[in-house]
Amino acid sequence: MAKVHKSVIKRARQNEVRRERNNAVRSSLRTSIRKLIRAIDSGDAEAAKTELPQAIRALGKASSKGVIHRNQASRKISRLTRRVNSLAASA
């Protein structure tokens, strides 16, 4: 029979909690980005401008918590901002 290490049991418990928390953050992040992209695709510049700060905030929080890499967050912010600005310029 294998030995039962307390640290292994604790690590498994911590990993489970962190996995659930990361999934919740990632899910809300995706929802926020999806709402912004939907506003951009519909051509609604006002809705896109109101959704952009929320998406940027969600990306910043996710990167600060280590759910996504900071470069990925920065890249997504840049691309989304560029799309919103081009929508506003064409409108």
Oligomeric status: single chain
Q: Which descriptor suits the 3D outline?
A: elongated
Q: Could you tell me the number of beta strands? A: 0
Spans with pLDDT under 50 lasting ≥5 residues? Answer: none
Q: Can you offer a commentary on this structure?
A:
With 91 residues, this protein is an all-alpha fold. The protein has a single domain, classed as Ribosomal protein S20 (Methane Monooxygenase Hydroxylase, Chain G, domain 1). The chain is built from 3 helices and no strands. It is elongated, with a radius of gyration of 18 Å. The mean pLDDT is 95. InterPro entries: Ribosomal_bS20, Ribosomal_bS20_sf. Residues 1-12 have a biased composition (Basic residues).
Features:
small ribosomal subunit rRNA binding, Methane Monooxygenase Hydroxylase, Chain G, domain 1, elongated, mainly alpha, 91 residues, Ribosomal_bS20
Quick synopsis:
With 91 residues, the chain is mainly α. It has three helices and no strands. The protein has a single domain, classed as Ribosomal protein S20 (Methane Monooxygenase Hydroxylase, Chain G, domain 1, Up-down Bundle), CATH 1.20.58.
